[in-house]
Amino acid sequence: MKCRIYLCFAFLLFFVCPSFGKVFIQNNEIKFLKPIEGVFVFRIPNNGKFEVVPYVSDNLITNRDVFNITKSKLVINAGFFDPSNKKTTSNVVINQKLVADLKYNENLIKNENILPYLNKISNRGEFRVLKVKNKIKYDICYPYDAVEKNETVVHSIQGGPIILPVMNLEKEFFILKDEKGKVVRESASVLQKRARSVVALKKNSNDLYFIVVSKENPMSLPQLQRVLMSFGFEKALNLDGGPSTSVNFKDFEIFSSNKTPRKLKSFLIVR
Fold it and tell me: How is the chain split into domains, by residue range?
């Protein structure tokens, strides 16, 4: 019932309320809105004024620290990592160079329970920043998806799973089912209610959106998928969430760990 109310309210905000649409359509600056309780939507105009780039730290660092060090306009947490050895479990490309490679994480590649599914993990969904002639384009796809002849992948960062247009938790090894179809393994608490970080795109728009679901209104990914569809998003990628969910924008901050921001490995910065 609660989810239905949220979806109806979101529909009214995006398609009926004029002021909500005007903020996102007419403004050329980064803006954020709170369409429903605990959910924050940030719009980054693709107008040549802002640059979206992954950021990877050698040591674990908080979202707030990255925001201050880089003097960015906006920072959101991004890829997955192993807190025990501080190594990435998401591939990251910056300026066409692979700067974080999950295959160097021995806890991942030497885990006998994981090895049969390593190919699925390596091919989890990613966010891409592409150069098309002299223009920037964003996309959400799989690492093995080809680019057009006139496109170059400048930056990319893995998350997962892809939420929209189609979510396949088994394909990206976020769940594992037994022969009877029962879920026997779950990663990133995808079926549980947790804080979430998402990057998303709309049809017929070049702009980029970050969505943060705070711990005040945690959602499972199936729940979040319905909400994102109601907001009119065409493509969406889940990023690391739960206690990792963090965003800094101006003097606004969200973090979902208990008392202090969690230290993380990779981020998306807007400068």
Answer: 31-270
CA distance 170 to 161: 9
- What is the torsional sign of CA 268, 260, 222, 205? negative
pTM for the structure as a whole:
0.90
DSSP-derived letter for residue 251 is: T
**How far is 20 from 15, CA to CA, in rounded Å?**
9
Task: Return d(Cα 196, Cα 41) in angstroms, integer.
Answer: 12
Tens digit of each residue's pLDDT (9 = 90 or more) over 22-43: 444 446 899 989 999 999 999 9
Distance CA(98)–CA(95), nearest Å, equals: 8
For every residue of 93-118, DSSP letters joined together read EETTEEEE-GGG-HHHHT-TTTGGGH
pLDDT in tens, 89-108: 999 999 999 999 999 999 99
Kind plus residue range of the DSSP H or E element containing 129: strand 126-132
- Rounded CA-CA distance 215/242 in Å is 8
- Rounded Cα distance, 156 and 139, in Å: 9
Distance CA 12, CA 58 (A): 44
- b/e per residue, 119-133, with b = 16+ CB within 10 A? ebbbbbbbbbbbeee
State how far the Cα of 72 lies from the Cα of 75, in Å rounded to an integer: 7
